Amino acid sequence: MDDQTASSQEHRKKYELRLFVFLIVFLFPILSVAIVGGYGFIVWMSQILMGPPGPPG
């Protein structure tokens, strides 16, 4: 039983390490680029529809 528990804990540690690396290396950079790009697209589209910011000419 002790052997199985140790093996299970080792497997879980490997899984958590892989998950952590995936989150840090892939998911967070992709999400940050998507969020910033989405915000830029919204600003760009709003300026196309409503004109540039500033006082009316």
Automatic annotation (TrEMBL):
User: What name does this protein carry?
Assistant: Periplasmic nitrate reductase, NapE protein
Sequence intervals crossing the membrane: 20-45
Q: Which UniProt keywords apply?
A: Membrane, Transmembrane, Transmembrane helix
InterPro entries linked to this entry: NapE_TorE (IPR010649), Nitrate_reductase_NapE (IPR004448)
Pfam families linked to this entry: NapE
